[in-house]
Every structure is written in C-alpha cells, then in structure tokens.
Write a structure and sequence with these properties.
By secondary structure, the chain is mostly beta strands. Helices cover 0% and strands 55% of the residues.
Length: 118
C-alpha cells in the first residue's frame, strides 16, 4: 500500500509564492510518475503538472506555465510544486497522485488547500 501526503498549502496574497510538497511511501514503492492536480470550488479537477521519476521529464499545464515548477527529491520520494506569481484563480485544493513502477493505478493524497487573496 502506498501512502501519499501533501503539505505546504496556505493563504497567500496575489503575486506571492508557495511550495507544496508531496511525500510518497510504501514498503515496495518505487516511484514512476507523480502528478499534481487541483480542484477549485465548483470546478472540475484540473491537471497541473507531472514528473517522470527516472527521466526527470516534466510537463506543466498551460494555465501555470512559467509560474509553477515541478521537481523531485529522489532520496525522500518527494515531489515539489513551486508556485510563483500566484493569482486568485489558483485558489484550489491541490492533490498529489503517485504511481509506482509496476503499479496499475495511482495513489492519492488528501489534498492541501491553497488560497490566494486579491
């Protein structure tokens, strides 16, 4: 079983920055890909960014490109989402999903709230 835990959310003014963390753990967990999603109030879940663990290949959504960066710490099985130049429309619950090598499905965290005030 894989445990996924997000942290780092909070309240920030527009133009500010936050860094979210997502730690994945499990006895046999070998990360393959980790993904950030978000869900704003009244909206559908939205893809934000992903990283392929071994190749460090990253991809971020157009809506956050140039402002958000995804990275990982291999030793800690942790992925980060650095969010700069935050806008009120970035307000959402941010979720992390992790998929291990050989796993068929993603494991999800509980989410962390990000609120950007104008």
């Amino acid at each position: 079983q894989v445990q996924v835990e997000e942290s780092g959310g909070g309240l920030v003014q527009a133009g500010g920055s936050l860094r979210l963390s997502c730690a994945a753990s499990g006895r046999t967990f070998d990360p393959y890909i980790m993904v950030w999603f978000r869900r704003a109030p009244g909206k559908e879940r939205e893809f934000v960014a992903r990283i392929v663990w071994s190749s460090l290949d990253t991809y971020v959504a157009d809506s956050v490109k140039g402002r958000f960066t995804i990275s990982r710490d291999n030793a800690k099985n942790t992925v980060y989402l650095q969010m700069n130049s935050l806008k009120p429309e970035d307000t959402a619950v941010y979720y992390c999903a992790a998929k291990g090598t050989g796993y068929e499905s993603y494991s999800w965290g509980q989410g962390t709230q990000v609120t950007v005030s104008s």
